[in-house]
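Suppose a colleague, Dr. K., hands you the sequence of a protein chain of 261 amino acids and asks what its three-dimensional shape might be. Before reaching for any lab equipment, you can write down a predicted structure in token form. Begin with the sequence itself:
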Amino acid sequence: MTEQKKRPKIGIVMGLASDFYGKSEKENQRFLIPDGYSKAISNAGGLPILITYDDAWLEDKSLEGLDGLMLIGSDHGLSPEAYVDGNASQFVPAPERTKFEMSITKKFMEKGKPLFLICGGFQLLGVMHGGKLTSDIHRDHPASLTHNKGEKHKIDIVQNTRMDKIFSSPSDVIPAGEMKKLEVNHMHTQGLETTTDQIIVSARSPDGTIEAIELKDYPAFNLAVQFHPELLLKENPNHPVKKVFEAFVHESSPELTASLK
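The predicted structure, expressed as tokens, is then:
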């Protein structure tokens, strides 16, 4: 009988209903996540472990059971100092969630464990490493493409980055012999406006908007994307972004991460 391969355990930080649906859900505070995130992890060979904002998760013994961390999107903002334009964001901060997500991300980084961060997680990672957000891309850059209505357009993947390596095999969507392009969705009003030397930009929209980043000199898998790959896979299970989930889960294997230490 063939022995089944152990699935890497991927922690996914859930949000409160109000994080996704606004103040109308304040009377019914339920932890939840859209199912696309957990399904994408499962389909890539991982085991999704759902995490609440509970400081017990920040204890070393709790984290020992997790192999990788995913942060997801929501409709909350960050504190004013995270923005180049100060207190101009239309999105209300969720300080409890932000504090927890920063803390658990730091814990994972201290242990050199893999990270994959989406939408709000992308923005949080950028701010944690000295970047600043714009609260409204279209106000600050009137000539930019439409980024907040779910429309799709192709992004340019920067050569010699982790994201570039993930898409190393040529396909109809990602041409060989030139800068690789990937069609993604766009559902964000805010964006990462400035970066630091701790951050590597790994993809941009044609208008220059940053769409993906990774951390310089981080030993394990790490990638943060502004778009929503989990929704692209719900529309098309064979969309090339499945390679990102597959790479994340594969590199979250305890055997691989142990070899990096």
